[in-house]
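Appendix B, Record 12. Input sequence as logged:
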Amino acid sequence: MLSSTLRAVGENLTLVPSRSSIFHRSLASRRTPAPPRASSYRTPSDVCTAETEVKKSRFVALAAPCASADDALRFVKERSDLSASHNCWAFRCGEAQYRFSDDGEPGGTAGQPILNAVTASGLDHCVVLVTRYYGGTQLGTGGLIRAYGGAAQSALELAAKEATEVRAKVDAVVNAAPGDLGKIFLALDEFAAEKIDEEYSDDGSVHIQIECEEEVAERLKERLASGRVQVLGSMSSFFNARAIAPRLLVLGHL
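Logged structural output:
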């Protein structure tokens, strides 16, 4: 496996754009240039449910973790109640990707308030679905905004109590002589890095694929570079490339 990794990485790295998906219900989408990515974030550890009632209309809100936009849309599709009056939702996956849907409610009265609640909660990679069962009384624009936003907030407050911290991980391949393995493994232990794979070349050198938390990557790189250890290509460039779709470590769930 490491051999294929070495061939794929080489000295130049190609970034592959992620696939996009389209959900069959109406949705609003916003995409902005990606800012520097946070090395960690908090996300719901499980699905949390909250139910509210406003003038006999029942609002059932579900807050859940989502790894990607596709994951969020899949959750909405699977958990929507098609017998209900409306299934409105919003999700956020980092600063650059978020969407919402009013699902037939007046524009700006459902999806946007739900998204605002997600943003205010401090949770990320989070999707909220609010299903409304009409009670026979119209709520008006302000009433809908408060009802949908309030239901979402209630579910998010429950989710925040037991949120999981997620930290970004990056990986790279280092080349070294067999006599330097002791120094390498000491450095990996110091920075809580993990050896993923290891291969020996015909010339006797060793190729080690490692993985570590993004926030310690530069310090580990400096420690390795201080010896006779060679990082395949530019370690920082490789890290930046992998930051587009990093591996994630859920603390406490190794």
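Residues 165-250 form a domain with the Alpha-Beta Plaits fold (CATH 3.30.70.240).
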